[in-house]
Amino acid sequence: MSIDALKDRIPDFAKDLRLNLSSLASDITLDEQKLAGTFVASAIACRNAEMTRDILDEFGGKLSPEALNAAKAAAAIMGMNNIYYRFTHMVGGDYTQMPAKLRMSVIARPGVDKVDFELWSLAVSAINGCEMCVQSHERAVREGGLSSEQVQTAVRIAATLHGVAAALEAAPAN
């Protein structure tokens, strides 16, 4: 399977997503590793096995084994962190001063350029709706030299894949 197979399965009621997916898959705002890693991390965060398989088929081979592992790690670690930090942000109080006591060493040593890992973490955090994490990762990638257009591209990928996952869930099984 591939991105073309994924586009073929997007129902007509979501044709805008099909068009967005096409344009984002060939976007030149991000280099190949940033683009492919953003697609992989975002697909995993959307929790749709069918879509994730197609995205991995299309983009997994464009990443080194270390980068593929880092994109998967960004989805996993942000899956945990986004819940924890969203809670502390919403509730406040003593929780904001308490140490998280959660292992997250992959953030310090992701196995790829720090900016790439931060970008993938940003996309996943946008999907998971953690304001505090989105702000933190956006600041890190901007300080790391990425432009607002590059950040927007990553978030557009995350948003589009989230919409595609919803459309696939809403479509009747073939």
Describe what this molecule looks like in 3D:
The protein is mostly helical. It has one domain (3-170): AhpD-like (Up-down Bundle). It has eight helices and no strands. Helix 6 (114-128) runs antiparallel to helix 7 and helix 6 packs across helix 8. The longest helix is centred in the middle third of the chain and has 27 residues, at 65-91. The mean pLDDT is 94. Keywords: Antioxidant, Disulfide bond, Oxidoreductase, Peroxidase, Redox-active center. This is Alkyl hydroperoxide reductase AhpD.
CATH architecture: Up-down Bundle
Give a quick account of the main beta sheet: strands, pairing sense, barrel closure: none
CATH homologous group name: AhpD-like
**Average residue-wise pLDDT:** 94
**Element string (H = helix, E = strand):** HHHHHHHH
Low-confidence stretches: none
Mind telling me the C-alpha Rg?
16 Å
User: Whole-Å distance between the termini?
Assistant: 16 Å
Helix content: over 70%
Number of helices: 8
State the name of the first-level CATH class: Mainly Alpha
Strand content: under 5%
Named CATH topology:
AhpD-like
Number of strands: 0
Count of folded domains: 1
